[in-house]
Amino acid sequence: MALILNQDETMIADTARTLFERHAPVSTFRALRDSGEELAWDRELYARLAESGLVAPNVAESDGGLGLGATAAGVIAEQAGHVLAAVPLLASAIAGSLIAAVASAAQKERLIPALLAGESVLALAIDEAPRHRPDLLECSARQEGAGWRLSGAKTAVIDGFDADGYLVSARAGGEAGVFLVQRGADGLDVERFASVDSRNYARIRLADAPSERLGEGDASAALAATLDLGRALLAAELLGICDEAFARTVAYLKQREQFGRPIGSFQALQHRAARLYARLDVARAAVIAALRAIDDQAEDATWLASLAKSVMSRLARELLAEAVQMHGGIGVTDAYDIGLFVKRGQCAGDLLGDDRFHTERLARDCWGL
What we know:
Elements: H1 7-23, H2 26-34, H3 43-51, H4 69-83, H5 89-102, H6 105-116, E1 122-125, E2 140-144, E3 147-158, E4 165-172, E5 175-182, E6 188-192, E7 201-213, H7 220-255, E8 257-258, E9 261-262, H8 267-296, H9 301-327, H10 338-350, H11 355-366
Parallel strand pairs: 1-4
Antiparallel strand pairs: 2-3, 3-7, 4-5, 5-7, 6-7, 8-9
Protein backbone atom coordinates (compact mmCIF):
# COMPACT_ATOMS: atom_id res chain seq x y z
CA MET A 1 0.00 0.00 0.00
CA ALA A 2 1.52 3.30 -1.15
CA LEU A 3 1.38 5.92 1.60
CA ILE A 4 2.13 8.81 -0.76
CA LEU A 5 -0.09 10.35 -3.41
CA ASN A 6 0.27 9.23 -7.01
CA GLN A 7 0.48 11.63 -9.95
CA ASP A 8 -3.28 11.77 -10.57
CA GLU A 9 -4.05 12.39 -6.91
CA THR A 10 -1.40 15.10 -6.74
CA MET A 11 -3.01 16.83 -9.74
CA ILE A 12 -6.41 16.66 -8.05
CA ALA A 13 -4.93 18.18 -4.89
CA ASP A 14 -3.29 20.97 -6.91
CA THR A 15 -6.56 21.71 -8.73
CA ALA A 16 -8.52 21.83 -5.49
CA ARG A 17 -5.87 23.97 -3.78
CA THR A 18 -5.88 26.48 -6.65
CA LEU A 19 -9.67 26.77 -6.63
CA PHE A 20 -9.86 27.17 -2.87
CA GLU A 21 -7.03 29.70 -2.67
CA ARG A 22 -8.47 31.76 -5.51
CA HIS A 23 -12.17 31.63 -4.66
CA ALA A 24 -12.43 30.58 -1.01
CA PRO A 25 -9.71 31.92 1.28
CA VAL A 26 -10.46 31.86 4.99
CA SER A 27 -11.72 35.43 4.67
CA THR A 28 -14.60 34.07 2.56
CA PHE A 29 -15.69 31.76 5.37
CA ARG A 30 -15.39 34.60 7.86
CA ALA A 31 -17.51 36.88 5.65
CA LEU A 32 -20.18 34.19 5.27
CA ARG A 33 -20.21 33.67 9.03
CA ASP A 34 -20.54 37.39 9.72
CA SER A 35 -23.07 38.15 6.99
CA GLY A 36 -26.06 37.73 9.29
CA GLU A 37 -27.91 35.93 6.52
CA GLU A 38 -29.27 32.39 6.61
CA LEU A 39 -26.57 31.19 4.21
CA ALA A 40 -25.50 27.58 4.55
CA TRP A 41 -22.75 27.47 1.97
CA ASP A 42 -21.13 29.29 -0.94
CA ARG A 43 -23.19 28.07 -3.90
CA GLU A 44 -21.03 29.82 -6.50
CA LEU A 45 -17.92 28.07 -5.21
CA TYR A 46 -19.77 24.76 -5.05
CA ALA A 47 -20.76 25.10 -8.71
CA ARG A 48 -17.11 25.74 -9.63
CA LEU A 49 -16.04 22.63 -7.75
CA ALA A 50 -18.69 20.55 -9.51
CA GLU A 51 -17.57 21.84 -12.91
CA SER A 52 -14.04 20.70 -12.07
CA GLY A 53 -15.21 17.22 -11.06
CA LEU A 54 -14.39 17.74 -7.39
CA VAL A 55 -17.84 16.90 -6.00
CA ALA A 56 -18.10 13.24 -4.92
CA PRO A 57 -15.24 11.99 -7.12
CA ASN A 58 -15.39 8.70 -5.20
CA VAL A 59 -18.58 7.56 -7.00
CA ALA A 60 -17.71 4.68 -9.32
CA GLU A 61 -17.89 5.02 -13.10
CA SER A 62 -20.42 2.19 -13.20
CA ASP A 63 -22.73 4.38 -11.11
CA GLY A 64 -22.22 7.46 -13.25
CA GLY A 65 -19.30 9.00 -11.37
CA LEU A 66 -15.65 9.64 -12.13
CA GLY A 67 -14.45 6.60 -10.21
CA LEU A 68 -11.44 8.39 -8.69
CA GLY A 69 -11.91 6.74 -5.32
CA ALA A 70 -11.98 7.69 -1.67
CA THR A 71 -8.36 8.82 -1.77
CA ALA A 72 -9.23 11.51 -4.32
CA ALA A 73 -12.16 12.65 -2.17
CA GLY A 74 -9.77 12.70 0.79
CA VAL A 75 -7.17 14.95 -0.83
CA ILE A 76 -9.98 17.37 -1.74
CA ALA A 77 -11.25 17.28 1.84
CA GLU A 78 -7.72 18.02 3.05
CA GLN A 79 -7.49 21.09 0.81
CA ALA A 80 -10.92 22.23 1.98
CA GLY A 81 -9.64 22.02 5.56
CA HIS A 82 -6.84 24.48 4.74
CA VAL A 83 -9.40 27.24 4.04
CA LEU A 84 -12.39 26.07 6.12
CA ALA A 85 -14.33 25.92 2.85
CA ALA A 86 -18.04 26.58 3.26
CA VAL A 87 -19.23 23.93 0.81
CA PRO A 88 -21.02 20.58 1.39
CA LEU A 89 -18.28 18.38 -0.04
CA LEU A 90 -18.40 15.94 2.86
CA ALA A 91 -22.17 15.47 2.59
CA SER A 92 -21.99 14.86 -1.15
CA ALA A 93 -19.15 12.32 -0.96
CA ILE A 94 -21.00 10.38 1.75
CA ALA A 95 -24.34 10.61 -0.03
CA GLY A 96 -22.88 9.49 -3.34
CA SER A 97 -21.33 6.43 -1.70
CA LEU A 98 -24.51 5.49 0.15
CA ILE A 99 -26.78 5.92 -2.87
CA ALA A 100 -24.42 3.80 -4.97
CA ALA A 101 -24.49 1.09 -2.30
CA VAL A 102 -28.21 0.79 -1.59
CA ALA A 103 -30.31 2.47 -4.30
CA SER A 104 -31.96 0.79 -7.25
CA ALA A 105 -30.67 1.41 -10.78
CA ALA A 106 -33.53 3.81 -11.48
CA GLN A 107 -32.89 5.72 -8.24
CA LYS A 108 -29.18 6.01 -9.00
CA GLU A 109 -29.93 7.30 -12.47
CA ARG A 110 -32.19 9.97 -11.00
CA LEU A 111 -30.14 11.05 -7.99
CA ILE A 112 -26.44 10.73 -8.79
CA PRO A 113 -26.14 13.03 -11.86
CA ALA A 114 -27.75 15.94 -10.01
CA LEU A 115 -25.49 15.33 -7.01
CA LEU A 116 -22.31 15.27 -9.10
CA ALA A 117 -23.36 18.39 -11.01
CA GLY A 118 -23.75 20.29 -7.76
CA GLU A 119 -27.44 20.79 -8.45
CA SER A 120 -28.63 18.74 -5.49
CA VAL A 121 -27.23 18.39 -1.97
CA LEU A 122 -28.32 15.39 0.08
CA ALA A 123 -27.30 15.19 3.73
CA LEU A 124 -26.91 11.99 5.73
CA ALA A 125 -29.08 12.09 8.88
CA ILE A 126 -27.90 9.31 11.17
CA ASP A 127 -27.10 10.49 14.71
CA GLU A 128 -29.91 10.69 17.26
CA ALA A 129 -27.92 11.23 20.47
CA PRO A 130 -25.79 14.21 21.55
CA ARG A 131 -22.70 12.03 21.08
CA HIS A 132 -22.04 9.74 18.12
CA ARG A 133 -23.87 6.45 18.67
CA PRO A 134 -24.44 4.60 15.40
CA ASP A 135 -26.01 1.67 17.29
CA LEU A 136 -28.88 3.89 18.43
CA LEU A 137 -31.63 3.80 15.83
CA GLU A 138 -35.05 4.79 17.14
CA CYS A 139 -36.28 6.63 14.04
CA SER A 140 -39.01 4.42 12.59
CA ALA A 141 -40.49 3.87 9.14
CA ARG A 142 -43.89 2.48 8.23
CA GLN A 143 -45.06 1.58 4.79
CA GLU A 144 -48.04 3.37 3.30
CA GLY A 145 -48.96 2.21 -0.17
CA ALA A 146 -45.96 2.59 -2.45
CA GLY A 147 -44.27 5.02 -0.07
CA TRP A 148 -43.05 5.24 3.51
CA ARG A 149 -43.67 7.49 6.49
CA LEU A 150 -40.89 8.40 8.93
CA SER A 151 -41.09 9.46 12.56
CA GLY A 152 -38.17 10.44 14.77
CA ALA A 153 -35.41 13.01 15.11
CA LYS A 154 -31.80 13.41 13.97
CA THR A 155 -29.18 15.78 15.27
CA ALA A 156 -25.93 17.33 14.03
CA VAL A 157 -26.76 16.58 10.39
CA ILE A 158 -23.59 17.58 8.55
CA ASP A 159 -24.23 20.13 5.78
CA GLY A 160 -27.90 19.71 6.57
CA PHE A 161 -29.27 23.24 6.75
CA ASP A 162 -30.76 24.20 3.40
CA ALA A 163 -30.03 20.76 1.91
CA ASP A 164 -32.27 19.61 -0.93
CA GLY A 165 -33.02 16.32 0.78
CA TYR A 166 -32.00 13.97 3.56
CA LEU A 167 -30.82 10.37 3.53
CA VAL A 168 -32.33 9.21 6.80
CA SER A 169 -31.49 5.97 8.56
CA ALA A 170 -34.59 4.42 10.07
CA ARG A 171 -35.83 1.08 11.31
CA ALA A 172 -38.42 -0.67 9.15
CA GLY A 173 -39.63 -3.74 10.94
CA GLY A 174 -36.56 -5.42 12.34
CA GLU A 175 -34.01 -4.02 9.89
CA ALA A 176 -32.30 -0.75 9.06
CA GLY A 177 -33.16 1.12 5.89
CA VAL A 178 -32.17 4.33 4.11
CA PHE A 179 -34.96 6.72 3.19
CA LEU A 180 -34.94 9.88 1.09
CA VAL A 181 -36.95 12.78 2.51
CA GLN A 182 -37.23 15.79 0.23
CA ARG A 183 -36.83 19.32 1.49
CA GLY A 184 -40.19 20.89 2.30
CA ALA A 185 -41.94 17.56 2.84
CA ASP A 186 -44.97 17.56 5.13
CA GLY A 187 -44.00 16.54 8.64
CA LEU A 188 -40.35 17.55 8.17
CA ASP A 189 -39.02 20.27 10.45
CA VAL A 190 -35.47 21.56 9.86
CA GLU A 191 -33.66 24.00 12.09
CA ARG A 192 -30.10 25.27 12.13
CA PHE A 193 -27.94 23.47 14.67
CA ALA A 194 -25.77 26.18 16.23
CA SER A 195 -22.15 25.24 16.81
CA VAL A 196 -19.02 27.05 17.92
CA ASP A 197 -17.28 26.45 14.58
CA SER A 198 -20.11 28.04 12.52
CA ARG A 199 -20.24 25.02 10.24
CA ASN A 200 -23.46 24.13 8.47
CA TYR A 201 -25.33 21.65 10.68
CA ALA A 202 -29.03 20.96 11.08
CA ARG A 203 -31.40 19.25 13.46
CA ILE A 204 -34.37 17.57 11.82
CA ARG A 205 -37.63 16.22 13.19
CA LEU A 206 -39.88 13.86 11.32
CA ALA A 207 -43.57 13.53 12.15
CA ASP A 208 -45.01 10.93 9.79
CA ALA A 209 -43.05 12.55 6.96
CA PRO A 210 -43.41 11.03 3.47
CA SER A 211 -40.27 9.41 2.12
CA GLU A 212 -38.87 7.07 -0.51
CA ARG A 213 -36.94 3.97 0.48
CA LEU A 214 -33.65 3.53 -1.35
CA GLY A 215 -33.35 -0.06 -2.48
CA GLU A 216 -34.67 -2.98 -0.48
CA GLY A 217 -33.56 -5.07 2.47
CA ASP A 218 -31.26 -4.41 5.38
CA ALA A 219 -28.92 -1.45 4.77
CA SER A 220 -26.82 -1.93 7.92
CA ALA A 221 -23.64 -2.93 6.06
CA ALA A 222 -23.96 -0.03 3.60
CA LEU A 223 -24.48 2.45 6.45
CA ALA A 224 -21.46 1.08 8.31
CA ALA A 225 -19.26 1.38 5.20
CA THR A 226 -20.55 4.90 4.58
CA LEU A 227 -19.70 5.92 8.13
CA ASP A 228 -16.18 4.58 7.68
CA LEU A 229 -15.81 6.67 4.52
CA GLY A 230 -17.10 9.72 6.38
CA ARG A 231 -14.63 9.13 9.22
CA ALA A 232 -11.70 8.83 6.81
CA LEU A 233 -12.75 12.00 4.98
CA LEU A 234 -13.13 13.88 8.26
CA ALA A 235 -9.65 12.67 9.21
CA ALA A 236 -8.37 14.08 5.91
CA GLU A 237 -10.12 17.40 6.57
CA LEU A 238 -8.59 17.51 10.05
CA LEU A 239 -5.20 16.88 8.47
CA GLY A 240 -5.69 19.97 6.31
CA ILE A 241 -6.84 22.01 9.30
CA CYS A 242 -3.84 20.95 11.38
CA ASP A 243 -1.38 21.41 8.53
CA GLU A 244 -2.61 24.95 7.92
CA ALA A 245 -2.65 25.86 11.61
CA PHE A 246 0.88 24.50 11.99
CA ALA A 247 2.16 26.47 8.98
CA ARG A 248 0.56 29.67 10.31
CA THR A 249 2.07 29.07 13.74
CA VAL A 250 5.57 28.52 12.35
CA ALA A 251 5.23 31.72 10.30
CA TYR A 252 4.19 33.58 13.46
CA LEU A 253 7.18 32.18 15.39
CA LYS A 254 9.46 33.61 12.72
CA GLN A 255 7.96 37.10 12.77
CA ARG A 256 7.03 37.69 16.43
CA GLU A 257 9.93 39.22 18.34
CA GLN A 258 10.62 39.16 22.05
CA PHE A 259 13.79 40.33 23.82
CA GLY A 260 15.04 41.64 20.47
CA ARG A 261 14.85 38.35 18.58
CA PRO A 262 12.21 36.15 16.85
CA ILE A 263 10.56 33.83 19.35
CA GLY A 264 11.12 30.98 16.90
CA SER A 265 14.82 31.17 17.72
CA PHE A 266 14.13 29.92 21.25
CA GLN A 267 15.02 26.26 21.52
CA ALA A 268 12.02 25.32 23.66
CA LEU A 269 9.59 26.48 20.97
CA GLN A 270 11.67 24.84 18.24
CA HIS A 271 11.41 21.49 20.05
CA ARG A 272 7.66 21.81 20.45
CA ALA A 273 7.25 22.67 16.77
CA ALA A 274 9.51 19.77 15.72
CA ARG A 275 7.42 17.28 17.69
CA LEU A 276 4.23 18.55 16.05
CA TYR A 277 5.81 18.28 12.61
CA ALA A 278 6.76 14.65 13.22
CA ARG A 279 3.28 13.80 14.49
CA LEU A 280 1.70 15.43 11.45
CA ASP A 281 3.83 13.27 9.17
CA VAL A 282 2.80 10.06 10.93
CA ALA A 283 -0.85 11.14 10.95
CA ARG A 284 -0.75 11.77 7.20
CA ALA A 285 0.33 8.18 6.66
CA ALA A 286 -2.58 6.93 8.81
CA VAL A 287 -5.10 8.98 6.82
CA ILE A 288 -3.80 7.83 3.43
CA ALA A 289 -3.72 4.21 4.63
CA ALA A 290 -7.41 4.42 5.60
CA LEU A 291 -8.43 5.97 2.28
CA ARG A 292 -6.41 3.42 0.30
CA ALA A 293 -7.96 0.54 2.27
CA ILE A 294 -11.46 1.82 1.50
CA ASP A 295 -10.59 2.03 -2.20
CA ASP A 296 -9.16 -1.50 -2.13
CA GLN A 297 -12.14 -2.81 -0.12
CA ALA A 298 -9.59 -4.29 2.26
CA GLU A 299 -10.70 -6.34 5.24
CA ASP A 300 -9.07 -3.91 7.65
CA ALA A 301 -10.60 -0.79 6.06
CA THR A 302 -13.03 -0.22 8.93
CA TRP A 303 -10.27 -0.43 11.54
CA LEU A 304 -7.94 1.83 9.57
CA ALA A 305 -10.76 4.38 9.25
CA SER A 306 -11.21 4.33 13.03
CA LEU A 307 -7.46 4.57 13.54
CA ALA A 308 -7.17 7.58 11.22
CA LYS A 309 -10.09 9.36 12.87
CA SER A 310 -8.77 8.62 16.35
CA VAL A 311 -5.25 9.80 15.52
CA MET A 312 -6.45 12.99 13.82
CA SER A 313 -9.05 13.87 16.48
CA ARG A 314 -6.43 13.67 19.21
CA LEU A 315 -3.74 15.41 17.18
CA ALA A 316 -6.12 18.23 16.25
CA ARG A 317 -7.01 18.84 19.88
CA GLU A 318 -3.38 18.91 21.00
CA LEU A 319 -1.78 20.64 18.00
CA LEU A 320 -4.39 23.39 17.93
CA ALA A 321 -3.96 23.97 21.66
CA GLU A 322 -0.22 24.34 21.04
CA ALA A 323 -0.92 26.74 18.16
CA VAL A 324 -2.96 28.98 20.47
CA GLN A 325 -0.26 28.90 23.16
CA MET A 326 2.50 29.79 20.70
CA HIS A 327 0.42 32.70 19.42
CA GLY A 328 0.00 33.93 22.98
CA GLY A 329 -3.02 35.99 24.03
CA ILE A 330 -3.99 36.94 20.48
CA GLY A 331 -4.52 33.26 19.71
CA VAL A 332 -7.83 33.29 21.57
CA THR A 333 -9.16 36.43 19.89
CA ASP A 334 -11.48 36.43 16.90
CA ALA A 335 -9.23 38.92 15.13
CA TYR A 336 -6.77 36.14 14.27
CA ASP A 337 -7.80 33.24 12.03
CA ILE A 338 -6.06 30.67 14.20
CA GLY A 339 -9.11 30.66 16.47
CA LEU A 340 -11.32 29.63 13.56
CA PHE A 341 -9.15 26.57 12.97
CA VAL A 342 -9.25 25.68 16.65
CA LYS A 343 -13.05 25.73 16.69
CA ARG A 344 -13.41 23.77 13.45
CA GLY A 345 -10.84 21.21 14.56
CA GLN A 346 -12.57 20.60 17.87
CA CYS A 347 -15.98 20.07 16.27
CA ALA A 348 -14.71 17.97 13.36
CA GLY A 349 -12.83 15.83 15.86
CA ASP A 350 -16.10 14.99 17.61
CA LEU A 351 -18.12 14.27 14.45
CA LEU A 352 -18.74 10.58 13.70
CA GLY A 353 -16.84 9.66 16.84
CA ASP A 354 -13.95 11.31 18.69
CA ASP A 355 -10.64 9.66 19.57
CA ARG A 356 -12.09 8.06 22.71
CA PHE A 357 -14.97 6.52 20.74
CA HIS A 358 -12.65 5.06 18.12
CA THR A 359 -10.02 3.88 20.60
CA GLU A 360 -12.73 1.94 22.43
CA ARG A 361 -14.09 0.64 19.11
CA LEU A 362 -10.66 -0.60 18.07
CA ALA A 363 -10.01 -2.20 21.45
CA ARG A 364 -13.39 -3.93 21.59
CA ASP A 365 -14.11 -4.95 18.00
CA CYS A 366 -10.67 -5.18 16.42
CA TRP A 367 -8.41 -6.41 19.20
CA GLY A 368 -11.07 -8.12 21.35
CA LEU A 369 -10.00 -6.40 24.56
